[in-house]
């Protein structure tokens, strides 16, 4: 019997997790990733609730527990750097927090022998027909698949091709920010600082790499337009937003310009009436991003991947029925996470009116 061929776009978390489950269930799985190699970047990710069951099913739960950052809590400061309170570790770290690269490395390792990975390439066209999907790539030769799954993030190429422009599905939460790392001159190992002022917040913590400080500047914006701007423009926007901050902010603004892992993004959610069209479906941030402020992105990606695979396995080849069941099962969970993401955006400088739109 010929195995059904599935192409997954995206090799971060949702994509490799889905690849593991689909391969286990007898599919021939390929993963295409625009990065030149397995992703080994990102800061800490946390797991909550049912995500632990997924990690156990993937066979990596014990390994992830071994990478626990063991965060001890976060000190709250005003915009001048004066302490105003303290938050427990669970406020940001969830039930278990690990450096993201440890999760992505594990997911790639457990799938590399059985799944075909194609790096440094991306889907350029999708044409559905009666018996499958013709897929064209930016670099590689065109191929035929039975199903295509978009697991390629907020700016998903699969979603853009199958559902239309990003502007029709992306909801900005009034918040943008930059992340980077720098030497830990404060000795913040396993603890954090959250400095809040009008329309802006600075969060820094020591975890992951020894003697390194992870820094996040977040500030109110009216659109995600800065995501597409140059680094100089992004840095200037950050400096303007934090020009009145005292404490460690001035020193960290200088460190920002020297960072070689500078990353800028806006807090956005993805809202779609349906997560599939024909033989194409979406999983994780590509289909229903709840925004980093929700604290549920990684858990949601893992749970979504397992739900999609489980429903495909039980539908006996009826992908339409499987996609419908997957959405019915997962949408209430996603709706709760997105509501939490909108609410939490205000803590980091987002506008309450935009966050609730």
UniProtKB/TrEMBL annotation:
The keyword Repeat does not apply. Pfam families: FAD_binding_3. Gene3D superfamilies: D-Amino Acid Oxidase, subunit A, domain 2, FAD/NAD(P)-binding domain. Residues 1-19 form the signal peptide. It comes from the Bacteria. Residues 4-336 form the FAD-binding domain. GO terms for molecular function: FAD binding. Keywords: Signal. The keyword NAD does not apply. This is 2-polyprenyl-6-methoxyphenol hydroxylase-like FAD-dependent oxidoreductase.
């Amino acid at each position: 019997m010929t195995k059904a061929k599935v192409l997954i776009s995206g090799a971060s978390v949702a994509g490799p997790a889905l690849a593991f489950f689909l391969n286990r269930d007898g599919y021939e799985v390929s993963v295409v990733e625009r990065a030149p190699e397995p992703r080994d970047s990102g800061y800490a990710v946390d797991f909550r609730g049912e995500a632990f069951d997924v990690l156990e099913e993937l066979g990596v739960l014990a390994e992830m527990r071994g990478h626990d950052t063991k965060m001890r809590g976060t000190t709250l400061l005003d915009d001048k750097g004066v302490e105003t309170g303290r938050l427990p570790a669970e406020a940001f770290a969830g039930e278990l927090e690990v450096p993201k690269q440890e999760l992505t490395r594990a997911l790639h390792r457990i799938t590399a022998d059985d799944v075909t990975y194609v790096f440094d390439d991306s889907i350029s066209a999708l044409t559905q027909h009666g018996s499958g999907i013709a897929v064209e790539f930016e670099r590689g030769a065109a191929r035929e698949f039975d199903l295509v799954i978009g697991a390629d993030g907020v700016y998903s190429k699969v979603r853009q091709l199958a559902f239309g422009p990003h502007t029709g599905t992306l909801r900005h939460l009034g918040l943008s920010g930059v992340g980077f790392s720098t030497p830990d001159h404060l000795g913040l190992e396993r603890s954090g600082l959250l400095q809040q002022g009008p329309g802006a917040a600075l969060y820094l913590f020591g975890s992951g790499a020894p003697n390194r400080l992870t820094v996040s500047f977040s500030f109110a914006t009216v659109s995600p337009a800065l995501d597409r701007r140059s680094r100089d423009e992004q840095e200037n926007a950050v400096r303007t937003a934090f020009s009145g901050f005292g404490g460690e902010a001035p020193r960290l603004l200088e460190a920002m310009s020297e960072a070689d892992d500078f990353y800028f993004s806006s807090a956005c959610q993805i809202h779609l009436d349906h997560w599939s069209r024909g033989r194409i479906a979406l999983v994780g941030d590509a289909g229903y991003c709840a925004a980093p402020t929700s604290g549920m992105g990684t858990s949601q990606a893992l749970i979504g991947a397992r739900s999609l695979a489980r429903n495909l396995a039980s539908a006996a080849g009826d992908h339409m029925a499987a996609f419908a069941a997957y959405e019915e099962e997962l949408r209430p969970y996603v709706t709760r996470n997105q509501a939490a993401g909108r609410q939490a955006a205000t803590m980091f400088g987002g506008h309450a009116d935009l966050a609730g739109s």
